[in-house]
What does this fold into?
Amino acid sequence: MAIDVLNWKILNCLQKNARQPNTVIGRQVGISSPAVSERIKKMEDSGIINGYFTFVSPFEAGYQFKAIITLRAFMGKLKPFLEIVKTYEEVLNCYRITGNENIVMEVVLKNQKHLESFIDQLIIYGETKTQIVLSHVVKNNDLKPLK
It folds into this structure.
C-alpha cells in the first residue's frame, strides 16, 4: 500500500496522539471522520500501523536507572542469548546489530544492585558494556515521509 500525502497527515496526527478522535483528525487533515477511519483501517490491515502504545515513565514507576547495554556474544552463545533475552523483564528494547558488538539493549533497573545482578546474568553470554542514560535528547521522534 502506498502512503499518500493524506495518509501521512493522518499518521502524523496519530503519532502525536493516537487517542484523539477521528473527528479531530478529520478536521486537521480536511476529510470526514468515516474517511479517516477507513484510511486508518487500511493502514492497519497493510501493516503500516503496527499498534498503539502507552509510554510509561520508568522513573515515575520506581526505576532509578535506564541503561544502554551492549553485548559481544561469545562463540556459540548468540543464538541462546537471542532466546533468553525475550524473558528478561528489564529489557525494553533489544536490537541485533552489526559491528564489534552483536546486541544493543535498552533496559530499566531498580537500583545499582539490580544493575549488578542483571549484568551477572548477561556475562555468561558475552562481554558487556554499560552506559547509564542521563536524559533523552530525542524521544520517540515521529516517522516522516521519505523525500
